[in-house]
């Protein structure tokens, strides 16, 4: 990815310094002949966009979109599936693309299909997949979609920006999805993140699944293999809407900020975390399960929760909140400090708190102290 950024810096330098480079032009892909970006007959007007101009705009509203292979391209705005009842597609193979903005699935009835294979797409602004319509994006190999790079930005990265939008992102192999600021899965509508293999999602500040743009937000994240999510600030799962995190294999969520991690953050919100195998949910601060909404952690068949706190609080701050931890299956599990060994207490707060044991291991020993107003159920 460093090589790709060096190429982007060169492209940006050419854009700024070359005489006559900054002439804005709009290009529309028709795909009339092939998937070859460089074939003029594939473009309306018969002119191929230059690769070194940050004022150009490119529109792709047909399903047979271009394939960029071993290229470095620079544009101002990329619109894919941005018109009513259109479907656009774009594939990058061993390429790097810089654009000032992405409008993927920009229309409520528009759809964008985007595939990256050992490629980088860098946008130094807000970078949402699924603006008003649908965006389906897959990354393979050592690919990355990011707004963190050589140009400073306060922009956010996310899925499903506006009401009615749908954003679906699949990370495979060693691919990376990164934000220089906040990372959202389902900002105001429906966002889904699938993480496989050694893929990574990175937020330098905060991370939200299911919000925090609207109560209509829906976020789903599933992690398998050795997938990693790294959060520099705090995290909310079910922030203003509904959020779910499913972790299996050797996956890891690591939250390093100095603020509470919330599952079911706001009144009416719902958050759920499900752990299996050797998955680790780790936060460097307090963990509230059902802060003002409904929160649940389920150990489906193993998994580990680690918090830098003496207690985890269920149904923390509201009489109408609900917080539940359930132990199911027969896999090894633990709820500890970050050291992985010191048990953390489970405390019932202002609302309805519950510990539920539905495991199939007759030899299970649960060593966490229980305090506060807390119901215990055993199946």
Descriptive account of the structure:
This protein has 379 residues and is mainly beta. It is built from one helix and 34 strands. The chain has one helix at residues 2-17, and strands at 26-29, 57-60, 67-69, 72-80, 87-93, 96-104, 111-117, 120-122, 127-129, 134-140, 144-146, 157-159, 166-171, 176-179, 183-185, 190-195, 200-203, 207-209, 218-223, 228-231, 235-237, 242-247, 252-255, 261-263, 270-283, 287-289, 294-307, 311-314, 322-329, 333-336, 345-348, 352-359, 370-372, 375-378. The strands form two sheets. It has a 24-stranded parallel beta sheet that branches. Strands 9-12-15-18-21-24-26-28-31-33 form a ten-stranded parallel beta sheet, with no helix packed on it. It is elongated, with a radius of gyration of 23 Å.
List strands and helices in order, with pairings.
Elements: H1 2-17, E1 26-29, E2 57-60, E3 67-69, E4 72-80, E5 87-93, E6 96-104, E7 111-117, E8 120-122, E9 127-129, E10 134-140, E11 144-146, E12 157-159, E13 166-171, E14 176-179, E15 183-185, E16 190-195, E17 200-203, E18 207-209, E19 218-223, E20 228-231, E21 235-237, E22 242-247, E23 252-255, E24 261-263, E25 270-283, E26 287-289, E27 294-307, E28 311-314, E29 322-329, E30 333-336, E31 345-348, E32 352-359, E33 370-372, E34 375-378
